[in-house]
Amino acid sequence: MNIFDIYLEKITKIIKSESKNNTLKLPDKLDSVNVEIPPKHFDCDVSTNVSMVLAKPNSINPNDLAKKISELIKKNDDYISNIDVVKPGFINIKFNQKFWNEFIKNVINCADDYGKVKKLKKNKYLVEFVSANPTGPLHVGHCRGAILGDVISNILKFNNQEVVKEYYVNDYGNQIISFTRSVYFRIREIIYKESFPKDKPDLYPGDYLIDIAKNIVNENKDIDFSKFEPISDKLTKLSVDQSLKFVKSNLSNLGIKHDNFISETNIINNKEVEKSVELLKKKNFIYEGKIEAPESEKNSNWVKRNQLLFKSTDFGDDKDRALQKTDKTWTYFAGDVAYHNNKLNRGFDKLINILGADHAGYIKRITAVVEAISGNKTKIKCKVSQLVKLIKDGKPFKMSKRKGDYITVEDLINEVGKDAARFIMLNRSSDVELDFDFSKVKEKSKDNPLYYVQYCYARICSVFRNVNININDKIDVKNFNFKYSSDEIRILKKVSEWPKCIEISLNKLEPHRIPVYLYELSSEFHSYWNMGKDREELRFINKDNKLSEDKLVFLKIISQVIKNGMNIVGVDTPEKM
RNA sequence: GCGCUCUUAGCUCAGCUGGAUAGAGCAUCGGUUUUCUAAACCGCAGGUCGCAGGUUCGAAUCCUGCAGAGCGCGCCA
Length: 577
What we know:
577 residues, alpha/beta, Gyrase A, domain 2, Isoleucyl-tRNA Synthetase, Domain 1, five-stranded parallel sheet, four-stranded antiparallel sheet, 12% strand, RNA-binding
């Protein structure tokens, strides 16, 4: 039940019917008419700008028009206790007890579904996220994008959308060759006691390669490791598999599970690149040509060469993009073209890619590919997760690949826990760089928004515990008739904003709104709780050690919203803290 | 040089896709526990929404220009 939508519908109906009677002129579009949350200092529950939008086409003062429309709204509506017209022409509506009764019954009946966007067309989504190179465990930088993608998927699923979560494995190209060679040297270290060549810059030095090498040696007694060349393909596959084991375990520590892992090598071996290039050629988006040196290469020995290019400039990209190297192998981009063609062939309605800030420059060419192949039928939305600045002991902490100052996801989870990592990483808009302060995240206080929200839930649970009622029991509210004070209604208003929070998070793919909202709701609740210290009538449990029906239902719906929200964020709601 | 993102209180950030007197937390200072969980609450103070124009009845929000910060710009992936 989204009370803002309900009243927007109602108001739209009223003005349309007035327009039919020729008593009101409407503009071409009614998009800008809205029903919103009024600022705090007004004593009302919802407000609308309808008269300001309609004033101009009717050449009438918005205040006068507001008076006329507010009369029409109030007529035949016995849920309104008061309706005001305020300064520029806002109409402010205050609801009566009957309204809040209906509202509460509705929330109780919706239960786990409360907040879902109604009348939403069911779409098939593909969310691609993380897709980090399979050359080692995930580090903290990957973490934010991972959580962002996971929670965006949760929001979509909460709204009954079909979602496939996918990880694209870049197991092809030069980096993987270096990686495999590094593993090979580690294997020689184990078997032939040769020390690892530390001076070669193209090798991966990390200690985790030792574990990978050990596992490979132990699990493949039949392989002859004496020479690299004969086993290179096999070793590549084994190394990537081992590496992905780390990655999957990291993700699972974060509470994340992908549905698919798609291998770039498979895509290339299946000739999907050739097929995609053929397709684009037919559509006239591919040609042979030369590209200019980038600005950063102006002074180097850049050589212009003829090569296969994709016309991404047709779609607003800075330059056309190369598909093939001189040695005729495919570029990374070519593989990605094929991968996106593959996505499109699987019949998704919408594609979502979560990228790290360092890959933002890639967005234009990939949206260009999707547009070119699908003929603009399937939309792709790329979300960028900005950098995470680590702060330890009040100082910025720079990560480098050198041993020792490299924080992995595992380190992070060990230090702060899955829930704190998820909640804190989500608590900010993904467009903004995030300060991640280790000491603060571990703190069990108000400084830590996770505990603040969880504590709210735990407090509610403790009330239920004290009166021996199971918080998860269903409540039959059919015959209830509640009476709430203005302090309680203030919280109910916040509860009524939940569907709106979900709707915006969904439309804009901005999960940070959920933790922000949950914090605000919790704040209202903690505030109310403390009022009970001075005013006995505001306590939940009365003198006879009973919980009134009013309070029971009141607590129930707050806990319900917190639970629904925390489920989406993917963190626990402990009943005791 | 070009592209993307950002700039709101001393610090870290929200701000509902254009609304009303711009909101939180931290830090500072002061107060609240014989009472349902003080991991909490209450109060004081703090603002030229980077700057300059424009669109509009109305701009922190949209457009243009400028300044600053970050990231990126390969036949790497």
